[in-house]
Amino acid sequence: MTVKRLGAAELHAGADELAGLLTDTVDGGASIGFLAPLGHAAALAWWRERADEVAAGRHAVWTAHVDGRLLGTVALAFPDKPNSRHRAELVKLMVHRDGRGQGVGRTLLAAAETAAAAAGITLLHLDTETGSPAESLYLSAGWTRIGAIPDYAAAPSGELRPTTIFYKRLGALADGS
After folding, report:
1. Does domain 2-174 correspond to CATH entry 3.40.50.620?
2. Alpha carbon 163 to its chain's center
C-alpha cells in the first residue's frame, strides 16, 4: 500500500478519481456528510473545493493506493483561530468498499496522526456515526470517546443518526512529558 500526501495541484489532477471514491463511500452507506445518491459532478465539485483549502493551508489530504488503485483517503482540517493552532480535526476518512477490511483505514489514520504530530499538532478530534465500523477503528487506535450526540446528522439514506465524538492527544502531551 502506498500512502501519499497530496498538494493542491495533485488533488486537482486526481479529483475525478477521488470523486469516484466519494460516491462509492456514500453509496456504501458511510455517513460522511452527504445524502445518497451522490452524483459524480457534485462529488467532483466537492473535491475541487478541498484543493483550494489545501492550497490555502487549511487542509491536508492523504490517499492510499493498492496496486495503483485509489482505495482510501483522509484529511486534517486546521483551525484558523490563533488559540487553536495546536489542534486539528480528522475528517473524511474514506475507504472504497473493495478495500475495506484490508487495513487501508488504519494505515491512513496512522499517516495523518504521524504527520500531525510532526507538524506540532498536539490534539486531534473527530466525529463519526455512532455504531459505525469507524467507531471500532478509532477505539482500537487509542482514541478517547467523549460521548454521543443524538440525531446529529442524516445518514446517506436521510435517517437522522447519532454521532460519537473522539479525541487523541499526540506528542509530548500523549506521553505525559
Report:
1. no
2. 15
